[in-house]
Amino acid sequence: MTQSQLSDILVARLARDHGGTRHRWRRLVGPVRLYSLKTHAHCNWAMNPTGSLSEIATIEQLLDDLRMSYPILTADH
Q: What does the domain layout of the chain look like in residue ranges?
């Protein structure tokens, strides 16, 4: 799975489950940061969502679920 694929899944699920536009959720979610597998062997990615406390909590809950399914990502080429 690549950074952009994960971002697309996240944004689609947020829009479907919580309403709003994909564009707005994409802005709140922000970019996916990748880390080296040498230093982050269990999960090599992170995101820092923005928005209201409620929006951030919603995004973080989904991120936790996605980390279980997709702990390792590859860079977009």
A: 3-69
